[in-house]
């Protein structure tokens, strides 16, 4: 059953079209992440769902009810913003209960909801503190708790972790995932530009660009079978390697550059073998084997080390293949140095090929 349905939604700011004929179904209990760079329309879409922005066209349904023109307070949602937006003069308990008091909810029910939210978020011991006495991570937990006490069916998160340092972001990612697991049948829609947050939190990811959804799928599909070059380049850290060349179909099908040939006989194409022409070959750094392991791969070459980037658990090596820049991962304890020759190899079945003209996956 759909928890949130978006039907042909468009939004214009004057002559600028921010969202265009967008359709999206979010299933009940699903954790959906809207992912994309600044200006792609992800926060705008979230604000339309929340009722903070009026759509120019289309309809929005929550639990089967048309809420397109309803006020935010009537939509049955809880929202967590990038800024904590806590009342500085109130205690944590006061911040959690303020909205419920304004609704005229009985005192006993307010106390029950505040206690439950505080327990889930592990802020029981902070209820009598004020925001100035809290760390950034604790303040964000309170902000999440303020949405949680509403007992909403749909929770909306607008980049809630972007103000925190890396360690706190990692810790709160786990807490948000645990929260979703505890709140069965609760739908969460989460906006971020951080692909790590998206990959670790989401049941499905909607990657956005220019007010449209480029691909909607589970994280594994997004990572392994990106629908176009844009999605492939946006997901993955470090980013995917792109090699420009041509697909040739005379004789055995192959992808060729001036110095490299990759046999494509084992490759599965979406719509059969594509026509010959310019194409882009994409292979992720972690899918390239090096050293002795390269000998077991169908495609092999020897490259010269150009730059080495130690990253702790592993090391990123920059080199060139067919005259084009390529990166691959090696063990963090590698003894490789600039100028070393190293064998590399990969399986083209783990790669992606895109049309140079349309940039769509072939």
TrEMBL record:
<dbReference type="InterPro" id="IPR003439">
    <property type="entry name" value="ABC_transporter-like_ATP-bd"/>
</dbReference>
<dbReference type="GO" id="GO:0016887">
    <property type="term" value="F:ATP hydrolysis activity"/>
</dbReference>
<dbReference type="GO" id="GO:0005524">
    <property type="term" value="F:ATP binding"/>
</dbReference>
<dbReference type="InterPro" id="IPR027417">
    <property type="entry name" value="P-loop_NTPase"/>
</dbReference>
<dbReference type="Pfam" id="PF00005">
    <property type="entry name" value="ABC_tran"/>
</dbReference>
<keyword id="KW-0067">ATP-binding</keyword>
<dbReference type="GO" id="GO:0055052">
    <property type="term" value="C:ATP-binding cassette (ABC) transporter complex, substrate-binding subunit-containing"/>
</dbReference>
<dbReference type="InterPro" id="IPR017871">
    <property type="entry name" value="ABC_transporter-like_CS"/>
</dbReference>
<dbReference type="GO" id="GO:0140359">
    <property type="term" value="F:ABC-type transporter activity"/>
</dbReference>
<dbReference type="InterPro" id="IPR015855">
    <property type="entry name" value="ABC_transpr_MalK-like"/>
</dbReference>
<protein>
    <submittedName>
        <fullName>ABC transporter ATP-binding protein</fullName>
    </submittedName>
</protein>
<feature type="domain" description="ABC transporter">
    <location>
        <begin position="4"/>
        <end position="235"/>
    </location>
</feature>
<dbReference type="InterPro" id="IPR008995">
    <property type="entry name" value="Mo/tungstate-bd_C_term_dom"/>
</dbReference>
<dbReference type="InterPro" id="IPR012340">
    <property type="entry name" value="NA-bd_OB-fold"/>
</dbReference>
<keyword id="KW-0547">Nucleotide-binding</keyword>
<dbReference type="InterPro" id="IPR040582">
    <property type="entry name" value="OB_MalK-like"/>
</dbReference>
<dbReference type="InterPro" id="IPR003593">
    <property type="entry name" value="AAA+_ATPase"/>
</dbReference>
<dbReference type="InterPro" id="IPR047641">
    <property type="entry name" value="ABC_transpr_MalK/UgpC-like"/>
</dbReference>
<comment type="similarity">
    <text>Belongs to the ABC transporter superfamily.</text>
</comment>
<keyword id="KW-0813">Transport</keyword>
<dbReference type="GO" id="GO:0008643">
    <property type="term" value="P:carbohydrate transport"/>
</dbReference>
<dbReference type="Pfam" id="PF17912">
    <property type="entry name" value="OB_MalK"/>
</dbReference>
């Amino acid at each position: 059953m759909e928890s949130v349905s978006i039907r042909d939604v468009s939004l214009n700011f004057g002559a600028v079209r921010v969202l265009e004929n967008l359709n999206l179904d979010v299933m009940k209990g699903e954790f959906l992440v809207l992912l994309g760079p600044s200006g792609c329309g992800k926060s705008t879409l979230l604000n339309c769902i929340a009722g903070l922005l009026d759509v120019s066209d289309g309809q929005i349904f929550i639990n089967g009810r048309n809420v397109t023109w309803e006020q935010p307070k009537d939509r049955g949602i809880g929202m967590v913003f990038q800024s904590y937006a806590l009342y500085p003069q109130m205690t944590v308990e006061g911040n959690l209960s303020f909205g419920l008091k304004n609704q005229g909810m009985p005192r006993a029910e307010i106390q029950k909801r505040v206690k439950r939210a505080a327990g889930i978020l592990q802020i029981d011991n902070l209820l009598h503190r004020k925001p100035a006495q809290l760390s950034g991570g604790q303040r964000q937990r309170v902000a999440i708790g303020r949405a949680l006490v509403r007992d909403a069916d749909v929770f909306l998160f607008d980049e809630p972790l972007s103000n925190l340092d890396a360690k706190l972001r990692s810790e709160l990612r786990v807490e948000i995932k645990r929260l979703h697991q505890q709140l069965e049948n609760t739908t969460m829609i989460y906006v971020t530009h951080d692909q790590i947050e998206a990959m670790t939190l989401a049941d499905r990811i909607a990657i956005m660009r220019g007010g449209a959804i480029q691909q909607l799928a589970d994280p594994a599909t997004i990572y392994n079978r990106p629908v176009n070059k844009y999605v492939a380049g946006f997901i993955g850290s470090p980013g995917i390697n792109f090699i420009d060349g041509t697909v040739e179909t005379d004789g055995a099908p192959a992808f060729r550059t001036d110095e490299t040939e990759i046999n494509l006989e084992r490759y599965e194409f979406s719509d059969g073998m594509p026509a010959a022409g310019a194409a882009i070959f994409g292979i992720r750094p972690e899918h390239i084997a090096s050293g002795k392991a390269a000998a077991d791969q169908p495609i092999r070459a020897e490259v010269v080390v150009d730059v080495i980037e130690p990253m702790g658990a592993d090391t990123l090596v920059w080199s060139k293949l067919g005259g084009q820049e390529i990166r691959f991962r090696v063990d963090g304890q590698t003894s490789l140095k600039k100028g070393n020759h190293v064998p590399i190899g990969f399986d083209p079945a783990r790669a992606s090929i895109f049309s140079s003209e349309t940039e769509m996956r072939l």
